């Protein structure tokens, strides 16, 4: 049995995580036991060891981690250190999952995987074959009353970081290219037949990718009919029930060490035709009060630092990059793609929030986003995936991912990966 | 499976369980899962330790790991231990034990009842508190811990925020209608009630089939995962309307070293010790 498991785990993990190029002998690619507080590189996690890594291209990431019974993997004090930056730049006070809501199209059942079961409560051991070249860290999980090898941190290649043929004054081409990599951090939770991978990729260009992978098995008991399921197996008899995974993340920003970030919404609209093409005009809308919003064509949001600027004197910011999402319109709280709320310590889960200290405020994020002035914004990102099963989803189900990214916008004057020879080409006129 | 028995058993027999799914959908007799299903759904052994490369807290570089994975060495960090921690890292067992003890100190919550009706509250979970943020400055060196209890005597959730450094309870918050994940004890109690209930007929029958004649008499024969059920958060029939004000639990149920038995349609009300069903 165990062997079966191991092979399966390897199969699902390998496509994303194997990194043959970085495994052997790469000292920079390895996790290191972090220096203690006070050094430039490592987050101050107190007596706990910070999760700190410098990627091969010179970008450093550092953070504290722990496991919560309900939320599962909790990352705190996340800091980004671009190459050449003397100090790490603080980005997030904390980043966690905030709900996984799984209703079935048949109308017969629904699960709230964080609030009713818990991702830490169901965290399982990660084996070395799932974490090649990486570091597996254990934590005591109170509800399980045992220690679980709960966290993998490793490095994975991400292909081209950039490529450019640059010509000098003699017309001679020089090719600049580099391969990029990510610090990959994940935990695994088993909820019944489903297995979830809670993963964060921290790229060497500063991009943060949050993603949730679902694998394991389709519900073995949920079969439905035409319109609410999809026939799997021979013929058209057994319709595995379609269902939703609405995943929420909660992001508590602490940009450049301050909670007082600003939030902005940008929309780009057609504004007539120019001589050679259509004119598109981008406008900025400050988000001064709590927000419940949906995506729209060419709409995006960013969180802007009030405490730090790059060397071009542009305020540092992080842009929310959404990917495809189908919001679930049968619950109020899943009907919006994004919420921004004023920070409250007791507001932790996007629904089924069960902190008595928040009693009387309602139990879901749609109730909290009620127009309060934002001085310490917390972002709640909802990504919905409507899963209509297919033949290929049978055992073990190929992992399906959903998530979003945070991309640095003006955090540094140029990319931290820009080669030294080109670093003078900042702005117009070169 | 009888009309009363709502548990649906999982696929059996080769052929990827198609026969079973048909049986389930058709409401036919309960059949039990196959070796194939068992092979893929068995839990990892909680105590399983299939690799021996455990480094100390400072990690052991170059630990062998499993070389047949073909991907280089894996380092392992042990869980932090001891009662004296600071900052933002995993809670230790010693801290959790100490937090519970402080939360229950001086006969606190003596009037509360646990899931068996015994004296004192039902312990649910412990988590590190958010850093104090009263002035906007996040002071996160001190370890403040939240200990959650459920008081069955009053059907309410109780949170004690404990300062581990001073050994004191900083504040107590209570609320009704909030239902965090069930504890292992509550999960076991829910299974016990289900096994003894008329609505457990199907579960017992499926267990007998799965074990080739065994009788299901104890939760110990099952591998269980509890799911809290709150009608304020999801749809439910009128018969389960109390769930939310009451503490209710569904179960993922698996025969130990055997197949799943689907009991997710059944809801055990731990507050009034009854069993209902969703459909």
UniProtKB/TrEMBL annotation, chain A:
Location of the active site: 113, 194
What does the record give as cofactor? Cu cation
Report the PTM annotation.
Topaquinone (TPQ) is generated by copper-dependent autoxidation of a specific tyrosyl residue.
Chain ranges of the Copper amine oxidase catalytic domain: 60-411
Give the top-level enzyme category. oxidoreductase
Lineage, top-rank taxon, reads Bacteria
GO BP: any one term: amine metabolic process
Q: Name one GO molecular function term.
A: quinone binding
Database matches in Pfam families: Cu_amine_oxid (PF01179)
Cite the EC number: 1.4.3.-
Q: Where does the record locate the signal sequence feature?
A: 1-33
Q: InterPro entries recorded for this chain?
A: Cu_amine_oxidase (IPR000269), Cu_amine_oxidase_C (IPR015798), Cu_amine_oxidase_C_sf (IPR036460)
Could you list this entry's UniProt keywords, alphabetically sorted.
Copper, Metal-binding, Oxidoreductase, Signal, TPQ
Q: Which residues carry this modification: 2',4',5'-topaquinone?
A: 194
Per the entry, the cofactor note is:
Contains 1 topaquinone per subunit.
**UniProt family annotation:** Belongs to the copper/topaquinone oxidase family.
- Subunit comment: Homodimer.
Recorded protein name is Amine oxidase
TrEMBL record, chain B:
Ranges annotated as biased composition (Polar residues): 1-10
Which residue ranges have biased composition labelled Low complexity?
A: 53-73
| Ranges for region Disordered | 1-20, 46-95, 112-137
> What's the protein called, per UniProt?
Tat pathway signal sequence domain protein
Its taxonomic placement starts with:
Bacteria, Bacillati, Actinomycetota, Actinomycetes, Kitasatosporales
